Amino acid sequence: MNIKDGSPGDGSTGDLPEGDLSLRERKKRQTRQRISDIATVLIGERGFDAVTVAEIARAVGVSPMTVFNYFPRKEDLFLDRIPQAAALFAAAVRDRAPGEPPLTALRGLALRLLDERHPLGGVGEGFADFWRTVVGSAALRARAREGVEEVELALAAALEDAGVADPRLVAALAVAAYRTVFVASVRRLVAGDPVEEVARAHRARLETAFGALERADLDG
Questions:
Q1: Rounded Cα gap, residues 117 and 127, in angstroms
Q2: Which CATH number among 3.40.50.800, 1.10.10.60, 3.30.505.50, 1.10.1900.20 corresponds to the domain 18-78?
Q3: What angle do CA 152, 158, 164 make, to 5 degrees?
Q4: Taking every pair of C-alpha atoms in the chain, what is the biggest distance, in angstroms?
Q5: How do the pLDDT tens digits run along the chain, 220 residues long?
Q6: How crowded is residue 85: how many other Cβ atoms within 10 Å of its Cβ?
Q7: How far apart are CA 76 and CA 144, in angstroms?
Q8: What would the DSSP string read from start to end of 72-129?
Q9: Which of 55, 82, 101, 218 is 20 to 30 A (C-alpha) from 63?
């Protein structure tokens, strides 16, 4: 995902800081990031269907097999943050403060991603071109929908571990709320609306959506 915030996309080493990784793992992370960055530039310039994995491999200086070792599917070269999204949503529940309701922790994550202008927050400078590419590709749209399901499953597992009575229902509602706000903001960015205006509306809608879920006491 080349709406980069300076941090790496999620891979086999998760979100560990560089200093906590072995030299081998740091090199693997750097290779993965380079493949994703170059793929995103090429796809952004020419469209998803017009770029082959072989072309991406040549541009990076690796073999197509190496590309597939890091990204089993071509779509994941562009939508490379799906594993990171699943990990962040699950971690928000698992690592929340003692006594903090899971939905409150998820609201905090959503607002933090927005404030940081993180790619997974949906709103930021330069994000519109990325999402135009996704919207223009049936394959990328399908993979994005699958990614939402993966996040929901990871969140449901974390909610179950947290003792929530109906973890699948709570996960489905929380992810649906986040996705609804996210998609609306992406559409506004693609239409050319000012980023700060979209961000203000995004925050207000997140507060409304998660506030409603918290008042329903679904995770109590």
A1: 10
A2: 1.10.10.60
A3: 100
A4: 53
A5: 545 433 334 443 345 455 567 888 889 989 999 999 999 999 999 999 999 999 999 999 999 999 999 999 999 999 999 999 999 999 999 999 999 999 999 999 999 999 999 999 999 999 999 999 999 999 999 999 999 999 999 999 999 999 999 999 999 999 999 999 999 999 999 999 999 999 999 999 999 999 999 988 887 6
A6: 22
A7: 9
A8: SSTHHHHSTTHHHHHHHHHHHHHTPPTT--HHHHHHHHHHHHHHTT-GGGS--TTHHH
A9: 82
The fold for domain 82-215 equals: Tetracycline Repressor; domain 2 (1.10.357)
**For the chain, what are the domain ranges?**
18-78, 82-215
Residue with tokens 């072995």: 22
Tokens of 27: 């090199």
180 token code pair? 């609804």
Could you tell me what percentage of the chain is helix, strand and coil, using 3-state DSSP and rounding each to the nearest 5?
A: 70, 0, 30
- The Cα-based distances of 48 to 57, 134, 204 in angstroms read 15, 8, 33
